[in-house]
Amino acid sequence: MNKPFPCLVLGLALAATASAAPQALDLPPPAPTSATPAPVTAPAIPATPAALDPAQLRALRSRYAAWQALPEPERARIREAARAVAALPPAQQQTLRQRFAEQDQRFRDGWLLGPQLGQLFPKLQGLFGYLPAEQREPALAILRQLSSDQLAQLSLVAQRTPPQERDQVRSQFLALAPGARDAWLKQNVGH
């Protein structure tokens, strides 16, 4: 599969640093010039929870919960990606951080789901971006069971499903037995 390496590494590394690291990476910003925009840096995380406002504390807890929910192989991939980003020259790290920060918030939030789902989340969002609370965890568990090919097919289904049919299509898919998913995906991709 052809993967956009810088985006993948950056998304994984930023997800790792935002949700698993106790403090932000200290990256020296490039020397400002009149042609250089202000640097985008990782926000510093205060040493004590009392220093956070309630919204920051909720966001930090949410990111940590997302990290804890990832399977260990996904966390290992994220740690490796974070090491790869940390090995880059500071200017290149800053460029990647800035490119990531310029992305839509929904795109950035998708990476909290881990490398496999994070890469496809913009395409899956139509079906799985706005789930009722009771469907969220079961849906994530099912999505994490899918192969790369199944996720690619499901992303096509998600993109082709009109908004008024999304709830029905999602419910059908989530109700399937694991052995029936391939046939359902092939049938629905063919439409």
UniProtKB/TrEMBL annotation:
Pfam families: DUF3106 (PF11304). It comes from the Bacteria. Keywords: Signal. Coiled coil: none annotated. Residues 33-45 have a biased composition (Low complexity). Residues 25-45 are annotated as: Disordered. InterPro entries: DUF3106 (IPR021455). Residues 1-20 form the signal peptide. This is DUF3106 domain-containing protein. It comes from Stenotrophomonas nematodicola.
